[in-house]
Amino acid sequence: MAVNNYDIIVIGAASAGLTAALYLARQSLDVLVISKDIGGQALLTDDIQNYPGFMKVGGFDLMNKFQEQAASYGAKFEYDEVREAVKLPDGNFKVTTTLGSFTATSLILAFGKTPRNLDVPGEEEFRGRGVSYCAVCDGPLFKNSEIGVVGSGDHVLQAASYLSSLASRLHVVYRGSRVPQDDDLYIQLKEMPNVEFHMNSTVKKISGDIAVDSIEVAPVNGGASKDLKVRGIFVEMGYVARTDFVKDLVKLNSNREVVTDKLGKTSTEGVFAAGDVTDVPYKQAVISAGQGATAALSAFNYIQSKRGKIAVVSDWKNVKPRVQESKAM
To answer: Per-residue pLDDT tens for 52-67?
Structure first.
């Protein structure tokens, strides 16, 4: 398992993590962002009306802009789930995911809540080889292919709306039996010739050889199953707070949130935190973004001090993007 070295690793890619990545990349640091998806819980709404600069913006669109801006300054992205984060004897940090390991001088914990797993046979085996938890991250990889998306609620409909513009055929495996008949997005999807709904159903198994080539779909309440030939399956099962992998690295409060000070510092030197994963009240996108910027500046100062340098933040207005055009994977 190869180990890749970075100046800093940001775990999480919503308002806090993406803002932190932007600030750090603009300081010419080698930044890696690790997340199962882009946007986190912001993807659950298409009607954000309290983010400065936008009278109204969808969470998907806003987070996509965040990601593109961070990537344009050189931030790198790894779409995976973190299994372990530890401090090494030399003072650096090692982050292990399902697919590899990475080391860095500093860490920023900004993962908020993590996409839920489907928990079916084949999911772990084909993670990153057809199983995805982020439509905006991996959707373009399946352009003109037959694919599926499984889940319920607004988030699966929003993912389906995006994927329908890429797929030759899209199977929406909807785990509930009720979708508001006046839901504009649902009505729009139902009318699309390349979209097929499988209501009150779920994915029971994911199969393939080197990569996904089929999913087994069955009614939630029992009944005959059927196999669908797909190249990929997008899992939209909602979100869950997972801080167990850092419980031995940083101090957590009784709510399993990461305890921080006003500079975003945790109980462990070199580890910073921002966003919904922290003990800071008022879980709002704009507050998370501000925390991400604070944690990034604190981390930059830490890295500079480790190198024996004085921390000097560049004039933001004169920093040019390293990549003029950037899109999610």
So the answer is: 898 888 888 899 999 9
